[in-house]
Amino acid sequence: MNQPVIIAENLRKEFGRVVALRGVSFQVEEGAFFTIFGRNGAGKSTLLSIISGMASATDGRIRVFGEDPGERTHRHRLSVISHESFLYDNLTALENLAFYGKLYQVENLNERMHAVLDQVGLHHRRFDLVHTFSRGMVQRLTIARAILHNPDLFLLDEPFTGLDQHATEMLIGLMDDLKSQGKTILLTTHDLQIGLRLSTSFMLLERQRVVETGTSDGLTAELLREKYFSLVKTSEAGQ
Amino acid sequence: MNVIWAIIRKDFQMEFRTKESITAMWIFSLLIFVIFNFTFEISRLLLLQISGGLLWVAFIFSGMLGLNRSFQVERENGNLRGLSLTPADPGLIYFGKFLSTTFFMLIFEALIFPLFIIFYDIQLSLVTLWIIPISILGTLGFTSLGTILSAVAIHTKQQQILLSLLLWPLITPIIIWAVKTTGDVLAGELSAAFQPVMVRMLVFDVIFTTISYLLFEYVVQE
Amino acid sequence: MTKPYKSQSFYVLAGLLLVLIPVTLYMIFQWVPPIKASNPTEATAQRIFYYHVASAWIGFFAFFIVFLASVIYLWKKERRWENMAVASAEIGTLFMTIVLITGPIWAKPTWGIWWTWDARLTSSLVLWLIYVAYLFLRRYLPDGTRRANLSAVVGIIGFIDVPLVWFSIRWWETQHPNAVVAGGDGSLAPEMLKTLLFCVGIFTILYLLFMQRRLEIARLEDSINRHYKEWETLS
Q1: Does any CB of chain A come closer than 8 Å to the CB of residue B77?
Q2: What is the pLDDT of residues A35-49, one digit of tens each?
Q3: What gap in Å lies between CA A179 and CA A162, rounded to an integer?
Q4: B124 Cβ partners below 8 Å, 6+ apart?
Q5: Which of 101-140 (B) contact A at CB < 8 A?
Q6: Angle at B213 between CA B208 and CA B218, to 5 degrees
Q7: For residue B39, which of B49, B31, B29, B48 has the smallest C-alpha distance?
Q8: CB of A74 closer than 8 Å to CB of A64
Q9: Mean pLDDT of chain A
Q10: Does residue A201 sit in helix, strand or coil?
Q11: In chain B, which end has fewer C-beta atoms inside a 10 angstrom radius, N or C?
Q12: With the CA atoms of A56, A62, A66 and A69 taken in that order, what torsion angle do they form, in degrees rounded to the nearest 10?
C-alpha cells in the first residue's frame, strides 16, 4: 500500500581516483524512518547529495517521488538538516524564516512562520538576532526552518554532530513527531544507539557498499550491532 | 525574480544592522588616499593625470573587502549550501548576490567620492556627472566576475588569497577602461575614445554576467 | 590493464622531434640570413624570435584546449576531459613561461631594457597569471567532482577573457605615447616566415607529445589509486 519515496538501483559514483559508491540499491517506503549507518567515508554523504540533487551518480538509477532528483522538481517536498544550521547570525529568527520561506515559495508565509516558531518554542524570541541564541535555540530554529515549507521527506545528515545531550534529545523528539505525522525520514549517522532507537528499517554502508539491511526488530538490530562493531574493530586493528 | 529580491533584501537587512561592509570599504579607501599621499610626492599636474587610477585602486581594493565579506556570511553556517538546496534556480541566486554586492559597492563609492574631490581638489563641472555611469559600468564588471569567483573560492580554505589570484588578472580590461574614462572626466574634457570605451565596458559586463549566470549551477554542485 | 606504459604514438612523436628539432636549429642559425641590425648581438638575439613566437602560439592553443575540454567536461562529466583540461593548462603555462623568459632576452640587446610594458609582453604576463591562478585553485581543492567543476568554470571564464585582455592592453598602449617600442616586424623575409611556420609546426608536435605524456601519467595515477582502493576493500 505504501509507495516507495526513494528508489535507488545500483548507484555508482566514481570519479578518477575517488570511488564514493560502488553499486548501492535500496528503497525507502513512504512514512518509513530509514537509517543509513556507516563510518566516515563509507559513502553516506555522497548518497544524500545524490538524493537531494546536489550531485549526480555516475551510473545506476535514482528516483525520488518518482522523479530524477537532478531535475530539482522535488526540492519543495524535501528538507535537509545537517550539523550546519544554514541560518544567518545577523538576522532575527523571523527574518531568517522569511528569507527561506520566500526561496521555498511558502504560501501564507506569515501565519506559517508564527506557527512553526510556536511549535519550537521560540515565538518570544522572534525579533532577536540569531547570534544571541544559545546552541539549543539555534538548533530549534534550524528545525523551524526545516519544517517551514511542510516537506514530505527529511534528509538528516549526521545531525547530532556537535550537539549536547539536551539538544540531541530535542532533535529526537522532533523526529518522533515527524514520524507520527507520517513523514518519510532518512537519517545518516554513525551512532548506533540513537539510530536503532528511532528507525523502522536500516542499511549499513561500509567501504561504499551495502553490507547489511533490515528492519529494526530485536534480532536484526542485534546482528547489526555485532557487524558494526566488528567492522570498527578490524579497522582499528589494521591501523 | 522573488529569489533575487529575497537575497538582496536579506543582505541589506544584515548590512544595515552591522554596517560592516560599507564602513570597512570606506575607511579602507580613506587609508589608501592617506598612504598614497605619503608614498608619492607628486606635482599637482601629474596628480591630475593619475587621479583616475588612484580612484579605481581605492574602489577595487576596497571592493575586495566587500566581496569577501559578502561571501563570508554565506559560508559561516553552510548557508550557500542551504540556498542551493532550495528550489531556487542557481542562476537567480547568482543574480541576487551579484546585485547586492554591486549595490553595496556603489553606495560606498558614492560616499567616498566627495572626499576624493576634496582631498585632490578636483574641479567640478557638468562633465563630472559622467563619473556615475562609469562607476556603474566599472563596478558591474568587477562584481560580475567577483561574485562567481567568490563562490568558487569559498570552497577552499584560502578563500581570500585565491579570490585575489583569480579575480585580478581577469578584470584587467575593465580596470584599463574605467581608469581611462575616469581620467577624461576628472580632466574635465572627454576624449574621442570616451564613448567607444563606455560601450566596451558595457559589452564586458554583459558577457560576464551572462556567462556567470549560466555557469553558477556548476559552482554549487557537489 | 595491459595497456603499455608508453604507447606507439609516443615513439612516433618522439622520433619525429628527435630529427626535426635539430632541423629548426639549423634553419634558425644557418639558413635564415641575419637581420640588418646596428650590432651583431642584436642580430643574434633576434634569432630567439622563432622559438618565442612558436611558444606563444602553443600557449594560446593550449589555453584554447583548456576551454574546449572544460566545456565538454561540464557537458559529459567525464574524468578524461578534466584530465585533458589540466594537462593543457600546465603545458600552456609552461610555454607562456618560455615566452616571458625569451621576451626579455630579446628585448635587452634590441631595446636596451629587460622589460617594457609592451602590449604583447603585458598581455602574455596577464594570461600567464590567469592560468597560474587556475593551477593554484586546483592545489587548494581535494580531488573529486567539485574540483573538476570549479576548475572547468575558471577554465571557461579565463579563456573568454583572453581576447578582451589582449585588445584592452593593445588599446591601452596606443594611449601611451611614451611606449614607443614598436615590434619592428613590419615585413618578414620569405626565409624568416618559412622558418617561423616550421617552428610553429614542430612546437605543435612538441605540445602533442607533452599532452600524450601528461594524460598517460594522469591515467596511471588514477588507475594506481583505483587498484589501491580495490585492494583496501578486499583486505
Answers
A1: yes
A2: 999 888 888 989 999
A3: 23
A4: B117
A5: none
A6: 115
A7: B31
A8: yes
A9: 88
A10: strand
A11: N
A12: -10
Q: How far is CA A109 from CA A92, B47, C166, in A?
A: 16, 56, 51
- Which has the minimum average pLDDT: A214-223, B38-47, C79-88? A214-223
**Closest residue in A to C148 (Cα–Cα):** A15
Task: Identify all chain B residues contacting A107, using CB atoms and an 8 Å cutoff.
Answer: none
How far apart CA A87 and CA A109 sit, in angstroms, is: 18
Q: Which three cell numbers stand for residue B19?
A: 554596517
Spatial separation of the C-alpha atoms in residues B1 and B3, rounded to whole Å: 5
For cell 526552518, the residue is: A145
Residue A118: CB partners within 8 Å, gap ≥ 6? none
Q: CB distance A15–C79 less than 8 Å? A: yes
CA–CA distance, C29 with C47 (Å, rounded to integer): 7
* Residue linked to cell 565596458: B201
Q: How do residues C126-159 score in pLDDT, each as one tens digit?
A: 999 999 999 999 999 999 899 999 999 999 999 9
Subunit partners of chain A (3 or more CB pairs within 8 A): B, C
- Nearest residue on chain B to C73, alpha-carbon basis: B218
Report whether C180 contacts C111 (CB < 8 A). no
Phi/psi of residue A27, each to 5°? -135, 145
Cell 590493464: give the residue. C1
A82 in reach of chain B (CB within 8 A): yes
Q: For residue B17, which residues of chain A lie inside 8 Å, CB to CB?
A: 90, 129
Partners of B85 on chain A (C-beta within 8 Å) are 52, 54, 75, 78, 80, 86
**Cβ contact (<8 Å) for B2 and A105?**
yes
Cell triple for A221: 538490530
Asked if the C-beta of A52 comes within 8 angstroms of chain B's C-beta atoms, the answer is yes
pLDDT at C182 exceeding the cut of 70: no
Helix (H) or strand (E) holding A154: strand A153-157
pTM here is 0.91
Enumerate the residues of chain A whose CB falls inside 8 A of the CB of residue C233: 207-209
Assess A110–C contact: CB distance below 8 Å, yes or no: no
Flag residues of chain B having pLDDT under 70. Answer: none
Distance from CA of A193 to the nearest CA of B (A): 27
